[in-house]
Write a structure and sequence with these properties.
By secondary structure, the protein is α+β, with helices and mostly antiparallel strands. The chain is built from three helices and ten strands. Strand 2 and strand 3 form a beta hairpin. The longest helix is centred in the middle third of the chain and has 13 residues. It is globular, with a radius of gyration of 14 Å. The mean pLDDT is 93.
């Protein structure tokens, strides 16, 4: 089973999500990507945050994991990061009229109402974390 890492990046009571517009459909996902052969999940998370968002992240441990569409996904809570948010990597290269990526900060209390934040299981776990 392939592995994927996803970032739960929090700052000032907001969460950083990737707003996607693909073939006319708008939805949100957690930033991240695939784990490369021989790479640890921590190294993959740091690399993905750097490539995709131009941010340098400091990680603790994996926050939770789920299985999603045949992939094992590892979610990391990231509160320690530096740099200037800017789209980069494959997402920037693949950007076109039918496939768009926009990193966006959203109030944590609004993600509960985001019915188009995927995967749903991960959204629920994040909502439960910040309800406390």
């Amino acid at each position: 089973m392939s592995k994927r890492v996803c970032a739960i990046i929090i700052k000032n009571n907001k969460i950083l999500l990737m707003r996607r517009i693909r073939r006319g459909q708008e939805y949100f996902v957690f930033p991240g990507g695939g784990v490369e052969r021989g790479e640890s999940i921590k190294d993959a998370m740091v690399r993905e945050v750097k490539e995709e968002l131009s941010l340098s992240a400091k990680l603790n441990k994996s926050f939770f994991q789920i299985e999603n569409q045949g992939q094992q996904e590892f979610y990391f809570l990231i509160k320690n990061f530096s740099g200037i948010l800017k789209l980069g990597g494959e997402e920037k290269e693949r950007m076109n009229k039918n496939n768009q990526y926009y990193p966006i900060w959203i109030d944590l209390n609004k993600i509960l109402k985001l019915s188009n934040l995927y995967p749903i299981e991960a959204r629920q776990k994040v909502v439960n974390l910040f309800k406390k």
